[in-house]
Amino acid sequence: MAEQKQGDFEKKIERLESIVKELESGNVELDRAVALFKEGKTLSDDCEKLLKGAQSDIDKAMSADSGASAPPLDEDEIPF
Length: 80
Description:
Largest sheet: none
Number of strands: 0
Shape: elongated
Strand content: under 5%
Number of helices: 2
Order of helices and strands: HH
């Protein structure tokens, strides 16, 4: 995953929230609403990519730590 600036995801979410608030206000002209929607869609796609990359990093770390996968637990078995 490409390195992101710290807080990049949070900044994108913050901007998405402000876009939603502006659109929900109902006081937005059509051209502005369309521009905000497009920006929001791009931000949403970016956030999804960041989350998928983070999940991939976590999955790799988990599989590297475990070495071999643990046997599945029985439904009635207590895992400790």
